[in-house]
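Please fill in the sequence for the structure shown.

STRUCTURE ENCODING:
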């Protein structure tokens, strides 16, 4: 199924929720991302849709009889405390619900509907965002060729890319239990590391803590064990996208990664933005897949299709911002470290899905995949400090006069993302943030 433009993408469409029409708003009526929230002291999580500075409580809206017909099954799925059941339904149900939501929130909606919908709206400032889905499995890819070339050249100057890189999307199976919602602090991890000049390893807090700017996407219906997902239908299994910070302890990672790859240097925490921007909302911002060099190998047949070549990419701007404790104490604004674009990835999201299932691996609703660090061709578009400071050899000077090679305790990392072009309304992803806390101190017996 190819997601086509329809009335929900019309840039002239406005909402009667006036803040949604403000320039630069992340959540105009053309976006309508899904998330899970709690309101006040309630311990019950509820599914909502962001519109301007408000959240539409979909259970409340369903109680009011605002959904019916083609949207009824999707609306019923939104009565759960996670988005998994909605994800499982597939594109036709997702699209029907989106059309109904857009009609209810658009200027010119029937006055009776406006009054009812208004009673299901909550100020975004009054809700606490939760994890949007129960994530059964998490896979992290390595699909930015600029990132792979940079990192590879640090450790293998004569051969930065491994022989398989241009033939398949490289990835590893991550830890789903340590995925958290934006705003969760990150405790500096401890682990085993080995300095270059040391005779042997030692155990202690990581000294080279880093972020990784990534884009994530959630699996929709998925496949049965033993079945593949053809590239032509891969996007039927893409519910929506979010921002991902794959926090990384570079010194732990360096010591452990051979021969089986990332482990404790990655598994301590991964953060995601709370609002999932649907694949349909991204339709106006689709681009051709990454243009490979003339002498690069072309994808094998199972990873190639005309639609993926012409529309497999997404023109999604992604940014990293930083504040230190000293900056916050002084009331200083966050400082932008880098700005890249998701369309620079060597492999598309659809290719990642197809490759993942090509051996018959079963993907399930709510599974999360991440792109790997999104980096561009120039220094200002590098998506982690490992690249920006070139393993710490070129520290960054902040407006406060402080320098950073890697993250210090008290640093807050903020990821932001948005799509915009001349023929469409800008839509945003919100943010994904977290503050670094000091490592826990243990005595010689290992107890706190």
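FILLED IN BY: designer on duty
SEQUENCE:
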């Amino acid at each position: 199924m190819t997601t086509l433009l329809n009335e929900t993408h019309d840039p002239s469409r406005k909402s009667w929720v006036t803040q949604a029409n403000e320039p630069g708003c992340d959540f105009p009526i053309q976006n309508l991302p899904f998330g899970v929230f709690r309101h006040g002291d309630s311990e019950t999580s509820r599914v909502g849709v962001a519109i301007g500075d408000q959240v539409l409580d979909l259970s409340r809206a369903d109680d009011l009889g605002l959904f019916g017909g083609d949207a009824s099954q999707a609306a019923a799925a939104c009565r759960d405390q996670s988005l998994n059941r909605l994800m499982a339904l597939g594109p036709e149900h997702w699209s029907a619900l989106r059309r109904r939501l857009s009609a209810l929130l658009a200027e010119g909606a029937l006055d009776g509907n406006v009054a009812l919908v208004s009673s299901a709206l909550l100020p975004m400032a009054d809700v606490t965002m939760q994890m949007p889905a129960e994530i059964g499995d998490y896979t992290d890819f390595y699909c930015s060729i600029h990132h792979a070339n940079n990192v590879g050249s640090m450790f293998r100057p004569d051969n930065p890319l491994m022989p398989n890189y241009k033939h398949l999307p490289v990835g590893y199976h991550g830890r789903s239990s340590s995925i958290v919602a934006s705003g969760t602090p990150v405790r500096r991890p401890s682990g085993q590391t080995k300095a270059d000049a040391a005779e042997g390893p030692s155990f202690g807090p990581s000294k080279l803590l880093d972020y990784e700017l990534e884009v994530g996407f959630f699996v929709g219906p998925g496949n049965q064990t033993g079945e593949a997902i053809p590239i032509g239908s891969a996007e039927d299994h893409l519910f929506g996208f979010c921002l991902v910070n794959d926090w990384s302890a570079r010194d732990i990672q360096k010591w452990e990664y051979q021969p089986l790859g990332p482990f404790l240097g990655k598994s301590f925490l991964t953060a995601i933005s709370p609002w999932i921007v649907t694949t349909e909302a991204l339709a106006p911002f689709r681009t051709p897949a990454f243009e490979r060099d003339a002498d690069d190998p072309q994808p094998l047949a199972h990873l190639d299709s005309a639609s993926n070549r012409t529309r497999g990419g997404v023109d999604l701007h992604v940014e990293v911002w930083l504040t230190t404790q000293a900056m916050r104490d002084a009331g200083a604004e966050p400082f932008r470290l880098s700005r890249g674009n998701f369309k620079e990835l060597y492999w598309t999201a659809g290719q990642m899905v197809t490759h993942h299932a090509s051996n018959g691996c079963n993907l399930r609703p709510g599974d999360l995949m991440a792109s790997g660090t999104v980096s561009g061709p120039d220094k200002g578009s590098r998506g982690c400090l490992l690249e920006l400071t070139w393993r710490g050899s070129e520290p960054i000077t902040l407006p406060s006069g402080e320098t950073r090679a890697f993250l210090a305790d008290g640093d807050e990392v903020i990821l932001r993302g948005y799509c915009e072009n001349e023929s469409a309304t800008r839509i945003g992803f919100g943010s994904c943030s977290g503050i670094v806390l000091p490592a826990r101190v243990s005595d010689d017996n290992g107890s706190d």
